[in-house]
Amino acid sequence: MNMIGIMSLSLIDDLLQSDGREVGAQSGHYLFHTGDEVMALYVVRSGDVHLIRQRADGGAALVLQRAGPGSIVAEASLFSQRYHCDAVAASPVSAKMLPIRALRDRFRRDPVFAGAWASHVTKEVQAARFRSEVIAMRTVAARFDAWPEWHGGAPPPKGEWKRVADQLGVTPEALYRELARRRKSLAQPV
Questions:
Q1: pLDDT of 86-122, one tens digit each?
Q2: pTM for this structure?
Q3: Count of CB atoms within 10 A of residue 50's CB?
Q4: Which whole number is the average pLDDT over 124-145?
Q5: How far apart are CA 82 and CA 91, in angstroms?
Q6: With b meaning 16 or more CB within 10 Å and e meaning fewer, what string describes 88-109?
Q7: How far is CA 161 from the centre of its chain?
Q8: Fewest CB within 10 angstroms: 16, 66, 67, 126, which?
Q9: How far apart are alpha carbons 153 and 140 in whole angstroms?
């Protein structure tokens, strides 16, 4: 794709149009394992992929990334030799598998693509930092109050409460209790 083409498309759209292979995975299927040689990156078309790091002490695994539709799985692995976590389909997944060698070559030879990639990764780092701040908040109420700032002021979409709870690092039940508490306080006469 030429420079003008890339400038008019988002990085994700560009990657989805790049050479690669369409793959599918059922829930629980691994796209790659910790320690595997980095052979490809994935762009999720549908479903959810979780990047999971197993704790050395045997404690609960850490979810490092929740990649939904339009997300690049493990973009931080672009210049790594080995994956540093497992990629597991959290639901049935359809994705574009992009060969790592082609991506590395394109990054090195195409400054517009490299700039788009750097911009994308910068936004991902900012989002991860904000999410870590939200997760550090002690109450569900505080986390829920921070959600609109995290998402450009937009309210949570209808039918997406489970995903919102996941993003906030709380159970859906805890989020539903908070929503019920808020509805009740709004219904109280002043």
A1: 999 999 999 999 999 999 999 999 999 999 999 999 9
A2: 0.76
A3: 19
A4: 88
A5: 24
A6: bbbeebebbbbebeebeebbee
A7: 17
A8: 126
A9: 18
